[in-house]
């Protein structure tokens, strides 16, 4: 049996009882290490689970999936995913590969940012399509995701923005030369995401378009959701460029414009004043 097990969002203890029972009896246990990360490292997980973990990076999962599936029809293999197993589409591919080989599989779900984002007080029913914001480079500055933000805003829906992480990435030069030299890990902050969004807004104005968001659009920044040091800040997009939420992982919400009174009341708990960083009424934004 192939088991896909969600680890939740915080630390080693967020795994479900059912998931932990499976991990303890599997012959091999893989830890997917590139779509997200926990606030604790591999060693902390191994200590709590009582099992050695095999790190599975992007190359292993997407190009060498046969290694993970090897003998999974004869013994139990676990594939651990931060959040929920289906938070990333690449894991559906692993399931399809297993099915084609006649390997039975089972999914043990857990909390993911897709539902835990409700901690800020915005109602999950009021979210539209989720988008991903990637690190821009000198030659690659995609704006296509902004069409989904526009559609969500026009429908009065909030947009959850998942922010880029770069783990075990190679520079273009090392990739071309086939050198297995990897760049240091990078995790996009809400500040970087806000700055890129503001640049898109400016680009649209230059092209004579009317952006659906502006510097004054209310946004919500979230950091380390599910961890004890979780942080949330509600402020304008302009203010979000300088808000300090600490270490990764960060997510950003662009609100849908009109909000339910309960949403406004909840966000007031996390509102940030531009000058003092003290609480400020959302109505004043």
From TrEMBL:
EC number assigned by the record: 2.1.1.314
Class of the enzyme per the UniProt entry, highest EC level: transferase
Sites where the protein binds S-adenosyl-L-methionine: 9, 84, 87, 112-113, 163, 225, 250
Pathway: Protein modification; peptidyl-diphthamide biosynthesis
GO terms, molecular function: diphthine methyl ester synthase activity
Domain (Tetrapyrrole methylase): residue spans on this chain: 1-240
Catalytic activity: 2-[(3S)-amino-3-carboxypropyl]-L-histidyl-[translation elongation factor 2] + 4 S-adenosyl-L-methionine = diphthine methyl ester-[translation elongation factor 2] + 4 S-adenosyl-L-homocysteine + 3 H(+)
Keywords: Methyltransferase, S-adenosyl-L-methionine, Transferase
InterPro entries tied to this protein: 4pyrrol_Mease (IPR000878), 4pyrrol_Methylase_sf (IPR035996), 4pyrrole_Mease_sub1 (IPR014777), 4pyrrole_Mease_sub2 (IPR014776), Dphthn_synthase (IPR004551)
Domain of life assignment: Eukaryota
GO biological process, one term: methylation
Pfam family, one: TP_methylase
Family: Belongs to the diphthine synthase family.
Described purpose of this protein according to its UniProt entry: S-adenosyl-L-methionine-dependent methyltransferase that catalyzes four methylations of the modified target histidine residue in translation elongation factor 2 (EF-2), to form an intermediate called diphthine methyl ester. The four successive methylation reactions represent the second step of diphthamide biosynthesis.
Name of protein: diphthine methyl ester synthase
Organism in which the protein naturally occurs: Chrysochloris asiatica (Cape golden mole)
